[in-house]
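Example record for the data management plan.
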Amino acid sequence: MRLPGYVVRKIDELVKRREFRSRSDFIKFAVTLTLGQLMLEEAREMAGASPEEFEKEAHEAWKKLTAGEFEEEGPEVLELIEKAEAEYKRLIGAGE
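Corresponding structural encoding:
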């Protein structure tokens, strides 16, 4: 995966400030967060949930995400995270 230099620098700043352990952890977080938001929006549209219900579900999902409970996600999310991590390692030469 290729990212613009300014994006990589911002991720590195977060790692340096110990917000994330590595670039890989940030990418896992960002991908999972984005997928979670998309899934919640889709579920809300399908279920016709009220804004209050949606907010409660979003808060619960955020708590799981920040706790690192990625295993609770569906297998397709985990597979995407694993692919992103493998591609990152390939690009930096970690797999050699």
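Summary line stored alongside the record: The chain has a mean pLDDT of 75.
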